[in-house]
């Protein structure tokens, strides 16, 4: 059972998301919050598998809450899926830098939202496809949130870890990577658990952005 916390300052959105989640088999809504402070308190109390957070909320916004829930030393550490009506770059950047596991626009199809929740609960990152290329290009040229350079990472990562990072940057899930490399799923998870701290990042999404930013993988062109 995937335990989900929902936080949004709009009553209709909260009710709609809660109804959507509750209608899905294998998903349980453990809390519904109207602002960031309430969301943080509920998350610490219920420790959900996924916290679905809006960005703009009274008091503490979703990015501030995500920073506390996703920090490497957070106890408990809760995976965050940001659901927002805003696709402004600064919000996307802020969410990724906070260590969220996913970023999705609220006008996404219901099935896509449910899929994103399941992906985040399974430890897979997800980001709205309409934002991916722009975000990667902007991060490469404007943002620096990781302390480990590409050259230094070549020294830190084993050949297998480097191979897994490349596949991760191509958008593969853990299952896809395991199938491609013909290894056990647990092996992939173990490698990923070692890769993130070596790169100085806290989430799969940050690892993917790091790979593009440090030219481990080519940045998609605007026309591709």
Automatic annotation (TrEMBL):
InterPro entries: CheY-like_superfamily, NreC/VraR/RcsB-like_REC, Sig_transdc_resp-reg_C-effctor, Sig_transdc_resp-reg_receiver, Tscrpt_reg_LuxR_C, WalR-like. Pfam families: GerE, Response_reg. One of its GO terms (molecular function) is DNA binding. PROSITE patterns: HTH_LUXR_1, HTH_LUXR_2, RESPONSE_REGULATORY. GO terms for biological process: phosphorelay signal transduction system; regulation of DNA-templated transcription. Keywords: DNA-binding, Phosphoprotein, Transcription, Transcription regulation. Residues 150-215 form the HTH luxR-type domain. CDD domains: LuxR_C_like (cd06170), REC_NarL-like (cd17535). The modification 4-aspartylphosphate is found at residue 54. Transmembrane segments: none annotated. PANTHER family: TRANSCRIPTIONAL REGULATORY PROTEIN NARL-RELATED, TWO-COMPONENT RESPONSE REGULATOR. This is Response regulator transcription factor. It comes from Umezawaea endophytica.
